[in-house]
Amino acid sequence: MKITFLWMGKTTEHWLQEGIDVYVKRLKHYISLSVEIIPSPKNLPKQDVGQQKEIEGDAILSRITSSDEVYLLDECGMAYSSEGLAEFLQKKMSASVKHLVLVTGGPFGFSEKVYRRANGEISFSQLTFSHQMIRLLVSEQVYRAFTILRGESYHHQ
Amino acid sequence: MKITFLWMGKTTEHWLQEGIDVYVKRLKHYISLSVEIIPSPKNLPKQDVGQQKEIEGDAILSRITSSDEVYLLDECGMAYSSEGLAEFLQKKMSASVKHLVLVTGGPFGFSEKVYRRANGEISFSQLTFSHQMIRLLVSEQVYRAFTILRGESYHHQ
After folding, report:
1. Min Cα separation B86/chain A (Å)
2. Which residue of B30, B92, B126, B147 pairs with B154 in a disulfide if CB–CB is 3.0 to 4.6 A?
3. Which residues of B touch A19 (CB under 8 A)?
4. pLDDT higher than 80, residue A45
């Protein structure tokens, strides 16, 4: 299985990027992983949230092929424990999923079209984290999941 | 009200420290805040988790006075939304709490003595985050909570 992290907009905080890089680098020892960053739409009328979500949604969909398994990071999604997330990934591998795409949206979330295309949603917390912070959490948790599947000690350190 | 973040052990990742510093600095515009770091116990027999938790627990308790309101960051605690956390803090201020202490433990969690002393536990996620990462999340969420209470736009950015 290959995993793609599909992210809307650049990570602007350098300390956050540094943290993400740490876990992405480690993760690549476990699985074929790529990080795709979709540039944020420019020159939109301010506060037109609906239009922004539509444009961002179309950009997300343009990066997805029909055979991809697509999960959205979304507050209203399914909440897993770290062990549960590891099991989720194991099931995808066992089901011979070729390409798993984990999508984090822009600041206003996803358009309806993106929800309709997705295979499911995953929630990391009832708390709202910034759409940039969630990237760090995803990178760390997916890395943690692989260490759990391998029986390595990271999870209990 | 004054808030203290009480943390077991130094933050070793410099990018994490940098992120924490960002939110702690911002938070200080809203409330009297201090960060207290308890040095990790040294020279313990390896893998003696029980003993480590006891020593860490006693060190935590030595920093707490009888009038403090103490909440532990703990996976099994109460899960809040960001708005709910803001309301929790507002209630503490309305109840004239003088000193709220938010404690993040070491890698193995808290001793029984610490649980008994605490006024409650707060869970940030069903996922397990490292005890260092949780500090970043606490700093960001408490900052977010104060922007919510002030009706500022950060929460929806």
Report:
1. 11
2. B147
3. 13, 15-16, 19
4. no
